[in-house]
Amino acid sequence: MDRATGLRLENISISLEGRELIAVDATIAPGEVLTVMGPSGSGKSTLIACVAGFLDPVFEASGRILSGDTELTSLPAEARHAGILFQDPLLFPHLSVLDNIAIAVPQRISGRNERRDIARAALERVDLAGFGDRDPDTLSGGQKARVALQRVTVSEPRLLLLDEPFSKLDSALRGQVREMVFDHARAARLPVILVTHDGADAEAANGRIIAVGSL
Ligand SMILES: Nc1ncnc2c1ncn2[C@@H]1O[C@H](COP(=O)(O)OP(=O)(O)OP(=O)(O)O)[C@@H](O)[C@H]1O
Question: Which of the chain's termini has less CB crowding within 10 Å, N or C?
Fold first, then answer.
C-alpha cells in the first residue's frame, strides 16, 4: 500500500509583534520539492519551525497544516513525523555514528539489536559500512551529512524539511549530497520544503519556487 501523503500549507501566516513576517499557501505533492527563497530574516527558518511544531511562542501563527487527511496544526512535534535537516548535521557527539542513527529508529522497534541492524543497513546504503563505531567528530563534512540523512530516513518521516542543509558543503560535495537527499525524497515519495539562498539548490530541486520577503 502506498502510504505517501502530500502536505498542505493552508493560508499559513506567521507574525512577530503584530506584524506579518511570512505568509504561504501551498500544496506539495508526495515526492515534490517546494523551494522557499528570500532574504535573511524573512522568516524561512520560522516557517520550517512552524511546520515541524517547534515554533517559538513569540510568534503567532494562523492557518492549517495538513499531511494527507491528518491535521498537524496543533499536534506536538513528535506526532508530526517530520524529518528535518539543518545547516549543521547536529550529530550527538557522545554517541557512536551507528547509535546516532539507531536512536532515530521508531519506538515500535524496541530491541536494541534490531535497531542497530537497521542503522547498520542505513550506513551501508551510503557507503559508510565501516564507520559505525567512530565518533561523529572524526567524520568529514560530507560523511556527517550522509549520516544525518540516514538518521532522518530510518525515522520513517512523512514529510521532509530542509533548512539550508547543503550550505556548508563545498561545491563538489554539495551536488552529491543534494542528489542523495532529493533521490531519497523522490523514492520515499515525501513532500519536501527546501529553504535555501542558493539558485543551484533551487534548480536541482526541480520543483516550484516561492519567494518570500522583499527579494
Ligand atoms: N525567538 C525569537 N524571538 C524573537 N525574534 C526572533 C526569534 N527567532 C527569530 N526571530 C526573528 O524572526 C525573523 C525571521 O527569522 P528567521 O530565522 O526565520 O529568518 P530566515 O529567513 O530563516 O533568515 P536566514 O536566511 O538568515 O536564516 C528575524 O527577524 C529574526 O530575528
Answer: N
